[in-house]
Amino acid sequence: MRHRFQQQTTLGITPISEVKFPLRSRDELPPVLMALQHIFITPELNEQVFALLEKKIVESKKKTGRRGMDLWHILVLAVIRHTLDTNWDRLEHIANYDVLLRKILGVHVEKFGIEEIEFAYQTMVDNVSLIDDELLHQINLIVVEHGHNLLKKKTKK
Prior knowledge:
Helices cover 59% and strands 0% of the residues.
């Protein structure tokens, strides 16, 4: 049984909406993580993206059994894997040790000795591979349309 993602307000975990990014970084990862943060905090965009994810991943599954990865985690890891054009081993490494990515995933613990979530290799392979290129393309179209609408609103003022 999968869930979208609802970040618990836990001591030591930075809310996804409050994650700060290095603005002078020339790496390709921070802009992508900023876009994912925008998807997460924008209700209409969030709803459209998660509706696509639920239709593709959750709809045909039984609502019994153990809880699967959250749809948010699957989306973020799939986007990162395609952005970096990387293999599963590197994805596992950055999912478990890159602080900025873990903050966007909503699992990085700053302090207080709370046990952090770790993503196992096979779990990532089994779940992230559920998002194919077609689904990413559909999500991309939604995000681009949303971006165009933002620009239209700014030019009308």
